Sequence to fold (222 residues):
Amino acid sequence: MKSIYFLLFIGIFNACNTPKNETKETISFQEEIKLDSLALENIFADSTLKNLSVDEINVLSETLIDTSEFFGLKASFIQIDSAKKMGKYEEFLSKLDIGVFKDIKSVLFKEYDLGDSKSLKFWGYDFSTFDACPYTNGKVILVSTFINGKNTSCTPFSYYQNWADAPFYNSVRADGELLKNGDFKISLTESEGGVDESEKEYNTKTNSELRYNFKDGKYAKY
Fold:
């Protein structure tokens, strides 16, 4: 993957026409960052990236909402990590049931000091289930924000996820783009198909966009 270099800084100032207790927060990036499915493949194939521990994931994912499709990955990661450390991973695989994650990798992709005790950390999971229907695999990069070392938000930034249980399937692709003003947007494409009640095949595809802005030291959807 082509290296992306960018310079970031954060400025806090009072606008001349606003009260003194109101501030406007600005992050400025020299270049935009874009992550698509190919970029995700390259990230998780990079052996130089740091593999994250359970303790590190606990900190990074502290504010990930429990309704996120990626919320349950931490529990599965902990289970798999424990089996590996105890030398019982092969035994774990031998007893694996369909639909259960067989392996999850977690890495730290990028981290940035924004100044004023604020920072961003990009990290993620590479996951796959037992090779049988239903089957799931995917990769996700999340961005976690911190103020004085405290996690203030954790948000999926770019991901893809595939699910299949013949004859049905679902595929989601979310391309993340970090803008020069510090906001980011996700271009979301979802495809699904199968057979309806009359045994007729169907396929659908939808496109949408999500936007997040950086405010008060964290990301929020708008």
Notes: Helices lie at 37-44, 54-60, 73-85, 89-94.
